[in-house]
Amino acid sequence: NMENIIRSFNILNGEWLLSIIGSRSSRSLAVDNKVREKLSIIAAYKTVLSLLEESDICWIPISLEEIIRVSRQQGLDAKTDVFSTKELKHNGAISDDLLFIGLETKEDGSGVFHMLPVEVKVGINDKSVMSKAATQLSELYQVLNKHLIKDSSKPFTQNYYRHFFANLYFGNLKKFIENGVIKDPINIEILNRKTQVLNSHLEFSNAFNYSIAKGIGVFFTDLNSFRKIEGPKEGNILELHLNEKDAYVDAEKKYEELKDEILSGEKGISLSLFNKENIIKEVNEKYGTGSIDDFTGTNKKQFNGENENTDIPVISSEDQPLTEAIVNDTSKNSIEDTRILLGTVKGSTQKIFWEYGNYGLPNRHLLISGKSGQGKTYFMQCLLYEMSKNKIDSLVVDYTDGFLMPQLESDFKEKLNDNLITKFIYRDKLPLNPFKRNSIDLGGMLMDETNDDIADRVVQIIDFVFNLGIQQSSMLKEEINRGLEIYGENLTFSIIKQRLLDEESNQAQTLHGRISNLLNKDPFSYKDETFTWNNIFSGKGNVNIFQLKGYSSDIQKIITEFLLWDLYNFTEREGNKDHPIPVLLDEMQNLNHKESSPTTKILKEGRKFGWSSWLATQSINSIKNAGGDTAALYNAAMQIHFAPPEDQVANVSKTIATDKVSRLRVENQLNSLSKGECVVNGYTQINDELQRVTEVVDITPLDER
């Protein structure tokens, strides 16, 4: 719509349009870039103005180039004014795109002016581009703060500058109204009060900058996945992230049309930061309307004795225009359409999903990391509930006491009701036989395990837990082999205990002492005709908790390792990649992660048998330090990182980003996470395409699911 574009140029800066028309015959890259740049500024002013619509301040954008041009026309000295050569070199380049001036009117007819610089970037906006924009915005803010807001030693000159900017404000407001861009009666009333405002004492304030931002960087980035607001970042700069296509599509839209899209939530940008109830009122009440001298640029301030956080909060599901794809459909036989809600992209209203049923996923494994107290267990309950909604059974092996009934969220228990099933292993014992002879798949041909195979498997687990050493491992293997020859699959640890006690050798007594905890407890029931894994994963949407409380940590590890091998062997025989087997293991750093372990085998080969392992940990480093295969962990196609321990931030960022600049950005994201926030690194569906994304996400709480 060329008419809208031309009108926008004429209002903001007519010389831009003349410059583009004058170079229309050229096909150079420089000309193309100029067109892209100016169109992006037009789109940016409409977008930012729409976002600011929610505040009590009446904002108007002004081109900084236009400000300089008008100042020269009015005879201001190019060497001494606020935008002199000297000031423009104030510690580097200064933002030269947009300056939003806002007027907050008082009951007595006077007004308070606020300033908000906006820098616009379009194209491939990497970390260096964003950093440059932040520097430019900060420098411009310092200039404005020095000359217009903070009390000056030259009050006459400062008052002249204030009137100059106030007149610019009303001049541009008039252009916006006369061109039909702004039609709000409140704005028209403000224009009618121009004389009253200008004849009163002019006040300029940085309260908005103090509470919200020094400036906004608007980034129209190629292949950007989500529209969102990030920040405030270091230096109190907001980042508004849009897609490059928005720069050209939105430039030609009418302002009212784009405003409706943004305010209705259609664009997916969070509006909460600029609403009328925000912190600006508290700042004005406490500090008045003058300057704030102790500006520190942080996003958390203490007001009236209470800590206020201006980070963008979780958006309620009722506010979302996007309809969840998750439905409780009992007739659904295919998993293909299953999407598991994770949360809301921070700074956006757009939801992000684990595309659980998408056949394009490399696997359905999930890695969850983060230090204690950040919301990992709560998040796991959210996912388990989502699975139940989709009639997908899940298994939780709880050796941390985190899934005991008193520890579970009341919403979780109420929503699941009869679908929450706990089996107490200490009371009932584990219904498995560690000495059962399994089949080995030789590429379509099945062969039964030999006694030696069974002995190797059992000794491997016991050695991992009790650290037997070569001699004791050999002796235990020999004892198991002899027991299998005599008792077959009727062999038990109680029998092995008695056989060791019957031997008189010191080696046998030493081995017995080493593993006596296992031999005395013998936590297996061996023959339980009522138990099959098919009953656990029956498509009813049950959350099955195998509760291991009551056993010591070494026995809990033994139980878990044997359980994983047994379930893996079951899935090898009967598993199907289209019927997932979600198994949750919290604090999984306590398990065996070596090459021959069941955990590593599941991560590397389990996908084709339906495995969906959910592995949660506070410390990935401890796995690496113990000789575990961390590469297999990062094979998980969905990774959720809550705030990590300080010494693990760098390691986590290296697994997400490859280049140094991107890693630094991820590190900043990880360091700034609050409770209930996480970095999602995985695949999600955008515009009907499966794309890998790395986004900060606010977890959607249970009561909104």
SSE inventory with pairings:
Layout lengths: L1 H11 L1 H9 L6 H24 L5 E6 H10 L11 H4 L9 E8 L5 E13 L3 H23 L5 H24 L6 H8 L1 H6 L3 E3 L1 H5 L3 E7 L6 E6 L3 E7 H6 L5 H9 L16 H8 L12 E4 L2 E4 L30 E6 L5 E4 L11 E4 L6 H14 L4 E5 L11 H7 L3 E5 H4 L10 E3 L4 E3 L2 H16 L3 H18 L5 H10 L3 H9 L1 H6 L11 H4 L6 E5 L5 H22 L6 E5 L12 H8 L5 E7 L2 H6 L4 H4 L4 E4 L7 H8 L3 H12 L5 E10 L2 E11 L6
Parallel strand pairs: 3-4, 3-5, 5-7, 12-19, 12-20, 13-17, 13-18, 14-17, 18-19
Antiparallel strand pairs: 1-2, 2-3, 6-7, 8-9, 10-11, 10-22, 15-16, 20-21, 21-22
Helix pairs in contact: 1-2, 3-12, 17-18, 17-23, 27-28
In short:
Pfam families: DUF87. The protein has 705 residues and is of the alpha/beta class.
- Rg measurement, Å: 32 Å
Whole-number average pLDDT? 85
Low-confidence stretches: 285-289, 291-333
Give the CATH class of the largest domain: Alpha Beta
The first-to-last residue Cα distance is: 41 Å
Roughly what fraction of the amino acids lie in strands?
A: 15-25%
CATH domain fold name of the largest domain: Rossmann fold
Number of domains: 3
Q: How many strands, what sense, and barrel or not for the largest sheet?
A: 11 strands, mixed
Shape: elongated
CATH superfamily of the largest domain: P-loop containing nucleotide triphosphate hydrolases
CATH architecture of the largest domain: 3-Layer(aba) Sandwich
| Helix content percent band | 40-55%
**Structural class computed from helices and strand pairing:** alpha/beta
- Trace the largest sheet across and list its strands: 11-10-22-21-20-12-19-18-13-17-14
The number of helical segments is 28
Count of β-strands? 22
Protein name: DUF87 domain-containing protein
Domain Helicase HerA central: 363-564
Pfam families: DUF87
Organism: Staphylococcus condimenti
